[in-house]
Amino acid sequence: MCHAVDTEHNGHENASVVYIAACPTTEANSKYVKKQLHAALSGQPPPDYADDSDLNETTLEGYTGYGGLREEAKRALGFYL
Q1: Who contacts 36 (Cβ-Cβ below 8 Å, separation ≥6)?
Q2: Does the pLDDT of residue 67 top 60, yes or no?
Q3: Structural domain tally of the chain?
Q4: Is 3 part of a structural domain of the chain?
Q5: Long-range CB contacts (< 8 A, 24+ apart) of 68-76?
Q6: What pLDDT score was predicted for residue 25?
Q7: Is the pTM of this model over 0.85?
Q8: Residue 17 lies in a domain
């Protein structure tokens, strides 16, 4: 799942950032994933990217929401924790 890309790209190849969900499932990672899910559903960056707290990801070009996520993505994002 693509999470974000830099606003400027100075390279010669395509660039993207791949989000890899926290794992293995430890108590600390489970707590993080729950915070991350809450942030994502409210359009905020993940907890470890809180330095840009004014960002509302729902206003970004290409944002489609979470309604169409496949079950694998929902599990990775913590929908079922």
Answers
A1: 22, 46, 47, 77, 78
A2: yes
A3: 1
A4: no
A5: 73/1, 76/1, 76/21
A6: 73
A7: no
A8: no
